[in-house]
């Protein structure tokens, strides 16, 4: 009798509690270890952006201390929310929790994924099956879900938003949205989407970024609306690759803009602007600097999937740009593992 496979334990890097803390009021990501360090590293730029009085600085200090504490509690609190939702929440559209079926996926997406998994598939052939938004920046677009599925998912997300269930922030920059693993949509929707369809496609598009070795993800929906989040500052994702799908609703504005990779010193004087197309997904490298222009009218909901390859990130954390200092975490953590996948030739990714 064969032995059952032991589930892999995923980790986060210890830098999560000190690096890339976002201060929306000043449009700045900062490292925060102490008040002295914060003053030494950021006082000139903070002053230039409006943090000028002792009261301003003390308010900033309090916000950063609260954010550090929130991050430290994130894993256990998220697990507790997920358990409560699983036991008490009643969905409005229970069919979206069914195991992902091909009927929910756009024909164009199915064709691209099927081609990518076929014998003899190559990048040239795949590029004929999707839209190249930017050859230089390697940004691509194609329909992902059918319109009825987007509508059903939106109705379910709005129902959850209006419920009295506890809700976690989707990420460290957005305040409004839904974490899909807490809602119970990771296992039936996102994991099969990654394993069956995105993996072969990303392996052809981004072989140098771990596209063929994706083994975890973090998926969330972000919401932009008047009186809530309306725009998103420039940043890069804690992911090797990203899928960003526009779910709706009716809206104006909110275009995405892209710069260079975060490792390349540059300015965003002439960023590439990309309008959303409902039902379609943008594919890009996680390290690509990007943001979202202010929403004009209506509501905009996007499904974002951060795709991670431990074979890549185990060597260098993209957030602190150092070898990760691993800390055990809940679920997929931040995609790090204590051991390399046994079948990965890490040298092939260098």
Specify the helix fraction band. 25-40%
- Under the CATH scheme, the architecture of the domain at 97-308 is Sandwich
What is the end-to-end distance?
A: 38 Å
Give average pLDDT, whole number.
92
Biggest sheet strand line-up: 4-5-13-9-16-7-6
- What is the C-level CATH assignment of the domain at 97-308? Mainly Beta
Would you give the CATH topology of the domain at 97-308? Answer: Jelly Rolls
**CATH superfamily assignment of the domain at 97-308?**
q2cbj1_9rhob like domain
Global structural class:
alpha+beta
Strand content: 15-25%
Protein described:
- The chain has 350 residues and is of the alpha+beta class.
- The protein has a domain at 97-308: Jelly Rolls (Sandwich), CATH 2.60.120.
- It has 8 helices and 18 strands.
- It has helices at residues 35-48, 54-88, 107-116, 123-127, 147-162, 180-183, 186-205, 310-313, and strands at residues 10-13, 21-23, 28-30, 131-134, 139-143, 177-179, 216-224, 232-235, 241-248, 251-253, 256-261, 272-274, 280-285, 288-292, 295-298, 300-308, 326-328, 336-337.
- The strands form 5 sheets. A 7-stranded antiparallel beta sheet has the order 4-5-13-9-16-7-6.
- The longest helix has 35 residues, at 54-88.
- Mean pLDDT is 92; it is low at 1-5 and 342-348.
Give a nutshell description of this structure:
Residues 215-309 form the Fe2OG dioxygenase domain. With 350 residues, the chain is an alpha+beta fold.
């Amino acid at each position: 009798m064969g032995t059952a496979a032991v589930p892999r334990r995923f980790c986060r890097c210890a830098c999560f509690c000190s690096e890339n803390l976002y201060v929306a009021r000043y449009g700045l990501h900062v490292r925060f270890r102490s008040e002295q360090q914060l003053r030494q590293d950021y006082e000139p730029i903070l002053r230039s952006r409006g943090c000028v009085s002792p009261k301003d600085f003390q308010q900033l200090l309090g916000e950063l201390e609260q954010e550090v504490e929130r991050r430290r509690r994130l894993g256990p609190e998220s697990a507790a929310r997920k358990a409560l939702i699983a036991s008490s929440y009643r969905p409005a559209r229970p069919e979206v929790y069914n195991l992902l079926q091909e009927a929910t996926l756009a024909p164009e997406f199915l064709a691209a994924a099927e081609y990518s998994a076929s014998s003899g598939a190559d990048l040239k052939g795949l590029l004929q099956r999707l839209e190249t938004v930017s050859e230089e920046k390697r940004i691509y677009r194609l329909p992902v879900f059918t319109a009825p599925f987007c509508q059903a998912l939106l109705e379910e997300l709005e129902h959850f938003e209006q419920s009295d269930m506890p809700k976690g922030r989707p990420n460290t920059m957005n305040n409004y949205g839904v974490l899909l693993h807490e809602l119970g949509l990771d296992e039936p929707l996102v994991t099969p989407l990654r394993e069956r369809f995105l993996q072969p496609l990303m392996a052809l598009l981004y072989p140098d970024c771990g596209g063929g070795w994706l083994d975890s993800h973090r998926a969330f929906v972000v919401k932009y609306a008047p009186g809530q989040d309306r725009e998103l500052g420039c940043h890069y994702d804690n992911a090797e690759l990203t899928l960003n799908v526009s779910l709706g609703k009716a809206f104006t504005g909110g275009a995405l803009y892209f710069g260079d990779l975060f490792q390349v010193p540059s300015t965003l004087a002439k960023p590439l602007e990309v309008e959303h197309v409902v039902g379609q997904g943008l594919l890009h490298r996680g390290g690509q600097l990007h943001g979202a222009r202010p929403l004009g009218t209506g509501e905009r909901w996007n499904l974002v999937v951060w795709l991670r390859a431990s074979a890549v990130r185990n060597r260098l954390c993209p957030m602190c740009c150092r070898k990760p200092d691993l800390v055990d975490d809940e679920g997929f953590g931040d995609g790090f593992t204590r051991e390399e996948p046994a079948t990965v030739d890490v040298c092939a990714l260098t």
